Amino acid sequence: MGKQRKTWSPELKEQLVLAVLSGEHTIAEAAREYEVSESLIHTWRAQFL
After folding, report:
1. What are the contacts of 9-18 at 24+ separation with CB within 8 A?
2. What is the pLDDT of residue 2?
3. Could you list the residue ranges forming a coiled coil in this record (predicted)?
Protein backbone atom coordinates (compact mmCIF):
# COMPACT_ATOMS: atom_id res chain seq x y z
CA MET A 1 0.00 0.00 0.00
CA GLY A 2 1.15 3.51 -0.78
CA LYS A 3 1.50 6.34 1.67
CA GLN A 4 -1.50 8.68 1.76
CA ARG A 5 -0.64 12.27 0.87
CA LYS A 6 -1.54 15.14 3.17
CA THR A 7 -4.15 17.53 1.90
CA TRP A 8 -4.16 21.21 2.74
CA SER A 9 -7.27 23.37 2.75
CA PRO A 10 -7.29 26.44 0.49
CA GLU A 11 -7.75 28.57 3.61
CA LEU A 12 -4.60 27.20 5.23
CA LYS A 13 -2.62 27.67 2.02
CA GLU A 14 -3.78 31.28 1.81
CA GLN A 15 -2.98 31.92 5.48
CA LEU A 16 0.51 30.47 5.08
CA VAL A 17 1.26 32.43 1.89
CA LEU A 18 0.01 35.68 3.40
CA ALA A 19 2.20 35.13 6.47
CA VAL A 20 5.23 34.77 4.18
CA LEU A 21 4.32 37.72 1.96
CA SER A 22 3.67 40.01 4.92
CA GLY A 23 7.06 39.18 6.42
CA GLU A 24 5.54 37.54 9.48
CA HIS A 25 7.45 34.33 8.64
CA THR A 26 10.22 33.43 6.25
CA ILE A 27 9.55 30.53 3.91
CA ALA A 28 11.87 28.35 6.00
CA GLU A 29 10.11 29.27 9.25
CA ALA A 30 6.67 28.62 7.77
CA ALA A 31 7.83 25.29 6.35
CA ARG A 32 9.05 24.14 9.76
CA GLU A 33 5.99 25.39 11.63
CA TYR A 34 3.45 23.84 9.24
CA GLU A 35 5.57 20.76 8.40
CA VAL A 36 5.51 21.55 4.68
CA SER A 37 8.39 21.55 2.22
CA GLU A 38 9.79 24.92 1.18
CA SER A 39 9.24 24.05 -2.48
CA LEU A 40 5.53 23.53 -1.80
CA ILE A 41 5.28 26.99 -0.25
CA HIS A 42 7.01 28.44 -3.32
CA THR A 43 4.44 26.68 -5.51
CA TRP A 44 1.51 27.96 -3.46
CA ARG A 45 2.94 31.48 -3.50
CA ALA A 46 3.26 31.39 -7.30
CA GLN A 47 -0.35 30.18 -7.60
CA PHE A 48 -1.54 32.86 -5.18
CA LEU A 49 0.15 35.68 -7.08
Report:
1. 13/44, 13/48, 14/48, 16/41, 16/44, 17/41, 17/44, 17/45, 17/48
2. 78
3. none
What's the rounded Cα separation, in Å, for the pair 11 and 31?
16
Q: What is the pLDDT of residues 3-23, one digit of tens each?
A: 788 888 999 999 999 999 999
Q: What is the pLDDT of residues 27-41, one digit of tens each?
A: 999 999 988 999 999
Cα distances (angstroms) measured from residue 47 to each of 13, 16, 17, 42: 10, 13, 10, 9
**Nearest to 10, CA basis, from 40, 38, 44, 39:** 44
